[in-house]
Amino acid sequence: MPTTAALPVFQPGQTAASARASLKQAVRVMDQARHCAVLWFADIMARGLYRDLGFASIQIYAQEELGFSRTRIGDFVRMARKLDDLPQIRQSLETGKIGYTKAREIIKVSTPATEKEWVKVACTTPRRRLAEDVARVR
After folding, report:
1. Residue 67, Cβ neighbours under 10 Å: how many?
2. How far apart are CA 75 and CA 17, in angstroms?
3. CA–CA separation, 15 vs 19, rounded Å?
4. From the CB of residue 7, how many other CB atoms can be counted at a distance below 10 Å?
5. pTM of the full predicted structure?
6. Distance of alpha carbon 67 from alpha carbon 15, whole angstroms
7. Domain ranges of the chain
8. What angle do CA 97, 29, 25 make, to 5 degrees?
9. C-alpha 138 chain-centroid distance
10. Residues 99, 125 contacting (CB under 8 angstroms)
11. Disulfide-capable partner of 49 in 23, 44, 79, 121 (CB 3.0 to 4.6 Å)?
C-alpha cells in the first residue's frame, strides 16, 4: 500500500489559500484512512480474528470495539464480502488507484466479468457522476 499523506495540524487564522490547502489535505487523508480501514476490516473478518479478540461476531466486534453504527457495519461487511469475489477492485483499493467511496459504488454492479471495466470508469469519473452511472445500471 502506498504511504499515506500526513494530516495537517489545525492552526486557526490561516490565509484562505492555506486553509483551503490544509482542508483538501485533511480530506485526502480521511479518504485514505477509510479505504485502509475497510481493507483491515476485511482481513479481520475473513480470518475470523474478531474471535481471537473475544467477540462472537464481526458485527459485535465492529459495534463494541470500533464504535460503528449498524449502517457502517453493513457497509463494511458488504464491501469486505464483495472484495473477496472482485480481486481487481480489491487490488485497486489496496494500491490507492481508487478510493473507498468509488469502490463502494462499483461493487454494487460489478461482477468478475465486468470489474475491470468498472475500475477503468471509476478511475476517470468524478464520484457523483460515478454514483449516477451505477444507479442507472442497477
Report:
1. 8
2. 35
3. 6
4. 14
5. 0.82
6. 36
7. 17-137
8. 105
9. 21
10. no
11. 44
- Rounded distance, CA 84 to CA 45, Å? 11
Quick one: cell of 16?
484562505
Each residue's pLDDT, cut to its tens digit, for the chain (138 residues) gives: 455 678 999 999 999 999 999 999 999 899 889 989 999 999 999 999 999 999 999 999 999 999 999 999 999 999 999 998 999 999 999 888 998 899 999 999 999 999 999 999 999 999 999 999 999 998
Grid cell listed for 126: 468524478
Contact residues for 134 (Cβ-Cβ < 8 A; gap 6+): 105, 106, 108, 109
Q: What is the CATH number of domain 17-137?
A: 1.10.10
Q: Which three cell numbers stand for residue 63?
A: 459495534
